[in-house]
Write a structure and sequence with these properties.
Blueprint: E1 3-5, E2 15-19, H1 21-41, E3 44-47, H2 52-60, E4 66-71, H3 73-85, E5 95-98, H4 106-111, H5 117-126, E6 128-137, E7 142-143, E8 146-150, E9 157-158, H6 167-176, E10 181-182, E11 193-197, E12 200-203, E13 211-215, E14 227-233, E15 236-242, E16 244-256, E17 259-280
Parallel strand pairs: 2-3, 2-4, 4-5
Antiparallel strand pairs: 1-3, 6-7, 6-17, 8-13, 8-16, 9-10, 11-12, 11-16, 13-14, 14-15, 16-17
Length: about 280
């Protein structure tokens, strides 16, 4: 891990810029632009953590610096998870400059983070923090966007042998004993799952489940302290809002913010209201 510091030039709060290694591979120009704008407007330290332990160390020694993620939704997820593990999640608002493929930035877009690097960087420098909810599971994982369980999620996980994806994603997979892809299946898939939301039974093992979607609501319900749950079974659709949802089965995988996790036998997700702050454009 390497780092550098730049002198302050008017930024009210010092920053810690956390660069996702994949972002520099995907769009190095956007990374450079964002870094230049942020370093030109604040006392900024730039870090390139190359492992979860380095990320933990950089965050634990940040002092008064606000963390700023330059990268994908997954990069933000990794930082939030590290802060949650250190019990520092709500200590400082977090900034983000989204860099990555469009399908890697869905959560950032939904949360209102500007997609253009200069606008996103200016929101970090002059924006206001907004308190947001977070999905936290009983295994210590977090999700800022949502969780999806498909009937095929119980399929065998296999490793990817080629292609570059975020180094942090690979390290996250290794930490959780998972891989990065799911072996394709054939035809329709379903899983036998028991699903309870705040103690209310939404599905039981006697009926196959095709898809379970858990997400934090947007719009006026953003920050309401509840999650939205959709359970799709052959011929039926169940919707619910709850603070906690538990899923149990013989072994199922799921995606948190698009990243494969599992398989597991039981997992419970709980909404932590106002758990973290995100710097967004004023107004």
């Amino acid at each position: 891990m390497s780092s550098l510091s730049t002198p302050a030039s008017g930024g009210p709060e010092p920053l810690l810029l956390l660069l996702d290694p994949a972002a520099r591979q995907t769009d190095g120009e956007s990374v450079r632009i964002a870094r230049d704008v942020l370093c030109g407007g604040a006392d900024a330290k730039v870090a390139y953590p190359e492992s979860p332990s380095e990320l933990d160390r950089v965050l634990s020694h940040r002092g008064r610096r606000r963390p700023v993620v330059i990268g994908s939704d997954l990069a933000m997820q990794r930082v939030l998870q590290a802060l949650h593990r250190q019990r520092e999640l709500g200590a400082d608002p977090v900034g983000m400059v989204p860099v990555g493929r469009s399908d890697e930035l869905l959560a950032a877009r939904a949360l209102g983070v500007p997609g253009e690097p200069v606008r996103a960087a200016r929101a970090v420098l002059a924006g206001v923090p907004r308190k947001l909810d977070l999905l936290v599971d009983d295994g210590g994982g977090v999700a800022l966007g949502g969780v999806r369980i498909s009937g095929g999620g119980a399929r065998r996980m296999v490793s990817r042998s080629s292609g570059w994806r975020s180094l942090w994603a690979k390290l996250a997979a290794a930490e959780q004993g998972t891989s990065l892809t799911i072996e394709p299946g054939k035809g329709e898939h379903s899983a036998r799952l028991r699903i309870e939301a705040d103690g209310r039974l939404l599905a039981d093992v006697h009926r196959p489940v095709k898809v379970v979607e858990v997400s934090l609501p947007g719009g006026e319900a953003l920050g309401a302290g509840v999650m939205e749950i959709v359970v799709r079974t052959p011929g039926a659709l169940v919707r619910a809002r709850a603070a906690t949802v538990s899923v149990a089965g013989r072994g199922f995988g799921y995606e948190a913010d698009g990243h494969p996790v599992g398989p597991v036998r039981v997992r419970t997700w709980t909404v932590h209201p106002g758990a973290w702050g995100l710097l967004l454009p004023a107004g």
